[in-house]
């Protein structure tokens, strides 16, 4: 039987905190206990917020914690063409459309609506979905800045069957239905970086052969989007474990001395990796 594959996939847009440490340690422990592999992926598509210096600091923090991962480490910034290819495929399937709206346009258009996505943000009202083919072509030709959105209901309809994933966050496997429509027309290609977390995560979970995605509960609802993309792009769906979040408050509860500081701050104050592991239950 092939070995389960786990991954920890931090975004190096700041220093690592206790919440990251918990997720990384949980992935590593599950890999160890199941005879699986533990991979690392640096989700650094958001340049310049994610810098190489922050990546190096992150790797140093993880090594300090005593974590060992398989080499090579995947860095998303080195794979942008793969994300572009996937985006182009969805475009060729006529499931995406360019969106020229500014943040302000969206705020104005949604001011009167109560509709919210699963994260509580106003649902995009589909303004640019209704542009004529001529207007779209003209604005693209003029080089007007734009994002690309997934036409969600069309995408879901093209799959033609309800989607489910296995969630093991509570300890027992549960069959969860995907509710991707609740997200509306999500952005798949951001105006500023030319791709998005949703595209990159499904491409790379497949590329790395990940069988178990273990990550924070905050990403539970986004899994519905990932399922749709996996189906459209012919990628496998892993098992999911969405674990409770160790937020600042819990961090403080765990140990007053650990607080909400970064791992680097804690290390500088003389906290040992064993102290961190113990406080997090490892
Ligand atoms: N890079 C994401 C983060 O740091 C995690 C993505 C994932 O685990 O799917 O929040």
């Amino acid at each position: 039987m092939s070995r389960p594959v786990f991954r920890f996939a931090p975004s190096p847009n700041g220093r690592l905190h206790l919440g990251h440490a918990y997720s990384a340690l949980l992935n590593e422990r599950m890999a160890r206990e199941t005879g699986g592999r533990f991979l690392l992926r640096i989700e650094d598509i958001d340049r310049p917020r994610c810098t190489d210096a922050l990546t190096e600091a992150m790797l140093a923090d993880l090594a300090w914690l005593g974590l060992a991962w398989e080499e090579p480490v995947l860095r998303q910034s080195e794979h942008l063409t793969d994300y572009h290819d996937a985006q182009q495929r969805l475009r060729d399937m006529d499931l995406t459309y360019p969106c020229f709206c500014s943040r302000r346009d969206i705020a104005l258009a949604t001011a009167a609506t109560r509709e919210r996505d699963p994260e509580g943000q106003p649902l995009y009202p589909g303004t640019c979905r209704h542009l004529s083919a001529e207007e779209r072509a003209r604005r693209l030709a003029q080089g007007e800045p734009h994002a690309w959105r997934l036409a969600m209901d069309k995408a879901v309809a093209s799959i033609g069957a309800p989607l489910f994933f296995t969630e093991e966050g509570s300890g027992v496997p549960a069959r969860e239905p995907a509710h991707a429509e609740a997200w509306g027309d999500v952005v798949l290609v951001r105006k500023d970086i030319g791709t998005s977390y949703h595209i990159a995560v499904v491409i790379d979970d497949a590329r790395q052969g990940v069988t178990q995605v273990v990550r924070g509960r905050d990403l539970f609802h986004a899994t519905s989007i990932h399922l749709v993309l996996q189906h459209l792009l012919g990628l496998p769906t892993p098992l999911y474990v969405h674990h409770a979040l160790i937020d600042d408050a819990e961090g403080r509860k765990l140990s007053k001395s650990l607080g909400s500081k970064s791992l680097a701050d804690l290390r500088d104050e003389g906290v040992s990796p064993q102290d961190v592991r113990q406080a997090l239950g490892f």
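The chain has a mean pLDDT of 94. The pocket of glutamic acid is lined by residues 9-11, 43, 201, 215, 219 (CB under 6 Å).
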